[in-house]
Amino acid sequence: MIYLPILILFVLYFLGIPIAYALFGSAIFYFTFYDAGMPPDLVLQKFITSAASFPLLAIPFFVMAGSVMNYSGISKKLMQMAEVLTGHLIGGLAQVNVVLSTFMGGISGSANADAAMQSKILVPQMEKRGYSRPFSAAITAASSAISPVIPPGIVMIIYALIAQVSVAELFVAGYVPGLLMAGALMLTVTFISRRRKYKPSRDKRATWGEIGLQFKDSIWSLSLPFGIILGLRFGLFTPTEAGAMAVLASILIGIFVYKELKFSHIKPILLDTIYGTGTVVLIIISASVFGYYLNWERIPQELTQMLLSLTDNKYTMLGIINVFLLLIGMVLEGGAALIIIAPLLVPVVVALGVDPVHFGMIMIVNIMIGGVTPPFGSMMFTTCSVTKVPVAHFMREIWPFIIALLIALVLVTYAPAIVLFLPSLM
């Protein structure tokens, strides 16, 4: 019976109840009808006090920064830079799609936001250039999995809060895995485009002069993520203050450098921020109440002992966890999955000697792959809904990209130096 709230959680979720309400409802059921030792008003108090967290302020700031960048012309400059660098390659616009997601990782930090934006901007252009719409939707969804891995992703902040690790180290650790995912997708795009004869978007490679001019034009956009990382590294500001600085820098660049940010953009930016923040934070505080139930029944400790009884080999354990996370990522949105599963698994892997920063990147990459995997991947649904591509057609095109991302995941899992090399330099 102590596991009944977990069953209720999944039943409610599959009935279409939003994950935040499913988490809170299942916890309230437990404390109201099963274990009356905790008065319901204290559970509600836990729900409210969970929101009173200074580190959580980083989330609305980074959500707002991503929205400001879309309206200020920063995203457009990044797309132009991506096309100059990769437009001459086989499958030019598909390659641009991957590189833009890599750049956008330092901007939006949200896979679904990146998938929605590129579905609106790039997919129609790809279709005009002769790419099939299902292929365009598939590469857009697959490349969006890179965005949360490249800092400063919101899921990184969430994991750092849960696992009590350095946000700066986790940010730095994301660069190499993100680039590895981008490289795997670009190779796959090349293979498919050569077979289908998809043409480049540029007739010839950009000259060094053209690249230099575009780099000069895009330097403000490209410098933002690195400025955030350096500020965190040298202790100039906390992760929360870094989000505020990202918003301020984006506003100044949009007004005085690119001159595209207008007074009329204030309302849509605020609406984007409120919606994005409300969704994420409501899930986080609902998950904290659900986590209170888990700890009350010592379920994380029991799970740790159960998994450790299966094997004491950390590589075998990581393989088991990878399969489990892929399945979870298929049915739960990335942030929600991370919030629910990380408190259960971090003690297990730490007991086996796995670095929590390394495991954080394994979790994030894994859950993002699950987000593009049928039948319930959240980025799959986002992309298909915006592009009007039937899920069945999407499924036929996505598998080569999933295989490419899984190869990157295996390397991230079993070659810890890929993740820990840059943090070790700190």
Automatic annotation (TrEMBL):
Functional description taken from the UniProt entry: Part of the tripartite ATP-independent periplasmic (TRAP) transport system.
Assembly notes: The complex comprises the extracytoplasmic solute receptor protein and the two transmembrane proteins.
Entry similarity comment: Belongs to the TRAP transporter large permease family.
PANTHER family in UniProt: 2,3-DIKETO-L-GULONATE TRAP TRANSPORTER LARGE PERMEASE PROTEIN YIAN (PTHR33362:SF4), SIALIC ACID TRAP TRANSPORTER PERMEASE PROTEIN SIAT-RELATED (PTHR33362)
Primary localisation category: membrane
Topological type in the membrane: Multi-pass membrane protein
Localization, UniProt: Cell inner membrane
Domain TRAP C4-dicarboxylate transport system permease DctM subunit positions: 7-418
Keywords, comma-separated and alphabetical: Cell inner membrane, Cell membrane, Membrane, Transmembrane, Transmembrane helix, Transport
Pfam families: DctM
Name assigned to this protein: TRAP transporter large permease protein
Transmembrane segments: 7-31, 51-71, 135-162, 174-192, 219-236, 242-261, 273-295, 315-332, 344-369, 398-422
